[in-house]
Amino acid sequence: MALGFFSRLKAGLSRSTQKLSGGLSAVFTRRKLDDQALEDLEDLLISADLGPSVAEKVIDSFRRSKFGKEVTDEEVRHALAEEIATILQPVAIPFEPDPKHKPHVVLVVGVNGTGKTTTIGKMARFYGEQGKKVMMVAGDTFRAAAVEQLQVWGERTGAPVIAGKPNADAAGLAFEALKRATAEKADLLLVDTAGRLHNKSALMEELAKIIRVMRKFDETAPHSVLLVLDATTGQNAVEQVRVFKELVNVTGLVVTKLDGSARGGIVVALADAFGLPVHLVGVGEQADDLRPFSAEAFAKGLVGDSIKVIERDDDTKPDDDEGADVPQEYPPQV
């Protein structure tokens, strides 16, 4: 029996939970919620990467509702989970390909090493299992490892991968891929891109060219621009969102590597700062560890709240194909 995703999310967030929950236990052991307690809580929230703005909102709420009352760490944990879920709920928007577009073109952007290519492969599997016809484009043509990795995912998922020669023009490749995907009536076209942020002007020019050239075939493309962020970078992720919003019209976020980080609070800071949809989160290397984002499950997992989250049936059923079509080991995230 496979673990439900909430169980995997809790396990993946364990390092973040230990940091935040351990701090709560240290600060609150049936203690009156006075100014000093609130100051300690604010410091804890900031150190857990939720950011000053979120910390201030939570403290203001606690001051209004609980100031002067004796509270336990469990009561604070539950109230904090509710506050965080309230911030996250507006951005917890599943990614759904628009059936009006055949294909729905998704430009996937992000700094090298965040897990862009892995995310594309996992998305191909996820939406392929929903009956969507998915195609992938190896648009990071300067990195042979990224091209090879996407081809491996193509073999495992059965999704065609359009790749060119090393150092090929990414815009021309995306154009040809869009023509082919349209002719083959694909539902979803996932376009990998370069992430050389150290050369911002060159990256901006390349992404702009990809969009400009694709629009010669379909003036509405791309229909989504997903920015992949690595949770282990903490507050650096905020700056990456700012930079990529300057480069392209980012429509949504994917946050990866939450299992390798004590900085899961960054998701809350991002929601508060930008209000961009958080479509997917990754909590492990397995293909099933990239799933739609749930505000309630994430909030409770982050703070270690013991209140039960009801898992959906599709999260608790056994994986019929576990160990069959997709091997248990996956290439490292690129």
Automatic annotation (TrEMBL):
<feature type="region of interest" description="Disordered">
    <location>
        <begin position="309"/>
        <end position="334"/>
    </location>
</feature>
<feature type="binding site">
    <location>
        <begin position="110"/>
        <end position="117"/>
    </location>
    <ligand>
        <name>GTP</name>
    </ligand>
</feature>
<feature type="binding site">
    <location>
        <begin position="192"/>
        <end position="196"/>
    </location>
    <ligand>
        <name>GTP</name>
    </ligand>
</feature>
<dbReference type="InterPro" id="IPR027417">
    <property type="entry name" value="P-loop_NTPase"/>
</dbReference>
<keyword id="KW-0342">GTP-binding</keyword>
<keyword id="KW-0963">Cytoplasm</keyword>
<keyword id="KW-0547">Nucleotide-binding</keyword>
<keyword id="KW-0675">Receptor</keyword>
<keyword id="KW-1003">Cell membrane</keyword>
<dbReference type="InterPro" id="IPR013822">
    <property type="entry name" value="Signal_recog_particl_SRP54_hlx"/>
</dbReference>
<dbReference type="InterPro" id="IPR000897">
    <property type="entry name" value="SRP54_GTPase_dom"/>
</dbReference>
<protein>
    <recommendedName>
        <fullName>Signal recognition particle receptor FtsY</fullName>
        <ecNumber>3.6.5.4</ecNumber>
    </recommendedName>
</protein>
<dbReference type="GO" id="GO:0005525">
    <property type="term" value="F:GTP binding"/>
</dbReference>
<comment type="similarity">
    <text>Belongs to the GTP-binding SRP family. FtsY subfamily.</text>
</comment>
<dbReference type="Pfam" id="PF00448">
    <property type="entry name" value="SRP54"/>
</dbReference>
<dbReference type="Pfam" id="PF02881">
    <property type="entry name" value="SRP54_N"/>
</dbReference>
<dbReference type="GO" id="GO:0003924">
    <property type="term" value="F:GTPase activity"/>
</dbReference>
<comment type="subunit">
    <text>Part of the signal recognition particle protein translocation system, which is composed of SRP and FtsY. SRP is a ribonucleoprotein composed of Ffh and a 4.5S RNA molecule.</text>
</comment>
<keyword id="KW-0472">Membrane</keyword>
<dbReference type="GO" id="GO:0006614">
    <property type="term" value="P:SRP-dependent cotranslational protein targeting to membrane"/>
</dbReference>
<feature type="binding site">
    <location>
        <begin position="256"/>
        <end position="259"/>
    </location>
    <ligand>
        <name>GTP</name>
    </ligand>
</feature>
<feature type="domain" description="SRP54-type proteins GTP-binding">
    <location>
        <begin position="277"/>
        <end position="290"/>
    </location>
</feature>
<dbReference type="InterPro" id="IPR042101">
    <property type="entry name" value="SRP54_N_sf"/>
</dbReference>
<dbReference type="GO" id="GO:0005047">
    <property type="term" value="F:signal recognition particle binding"/>
</dbReference>
<dbReference type="InterPro" id="IPR003593">
    <property type="entry name" value="AAA+_ATPase"/>
</dbReference>
<keyword id="KW-0378">Hydrolase</keyword>
<dbReference type="GO" id="GO:0005886">
    <property type="term" value="C:plasma membrane"/>
</dbReference>
<comment type="function">
    <text>Involved in targeting and insertion of nascent membrane proteins into the cytoplasmic membrane. Acts as a receptor for the complex formed by the signal recognition particle (SRP) and the ribosome-nascent chain (RNC). Interaction with SRP-RNC leads to the transfer of the RNC complex to the Sec translocase for insertion into the membrane, the hydrolysis of GTP by both Ffh and FtsY, and the dissociation of the SRP-FtsY complex into the individual components.</text>
</comment>
<dbReference type="GO" id="GO:0005737">
    <property type="term" value="C:cytoplasm"/>
</dbReference>
<dbReference type="InterPro" id="IPR004390">
    <property type="entry name" value="SR_rcpt_FtsY"/>
</dbReference>
<dbReference type="InterPro" id="IPR036225">
    <property type="entry name" value="SRP/SRP_N"/>
</dbReference>
